[in-house]
Write a structure and sequence with these properties.
Distance between the termini: 12 Å
Number of helices: 2
Radius of gyration: 10 Å
Order of helices and strands: EEHHEEEEE
Strand content: 25-35%
CATH class: Alpha Beta
């Protein structure tokens, strides 16, 4: 599992995809989310602005990322 460190209380899902390198552009992140390709804590998430916090697990293309 990949660990991704954030320095704020939370990060929005679309920003997380860019921060972690999953998406290179905001429009790319938006597309991944709208297409149902991203899971947050094992559930498909279609909310771009979903607030992620420490301990949340994000899944994309069989890779897992934990916010630390």
């Amino acid at each position: 599992m990949n660990k991704v460190e954030i320095s704020t209380e939370f990060i929005k899902l679309d920003a997380f995809l860019k921060w972690s390198g999953i998406a290179s552009l905001g429009s790319e992140a938006k597309m991944y989310i709208q297409d149902g390709l991203v899971k947050v804590n094992s559930e498909v998430c279609l909310q771009r602005g979903k607030k992620l916090k420490l301990g949340d697990i994000i899944e994309f293309e069989n890779e897992k990322f934990e916010i630390v």
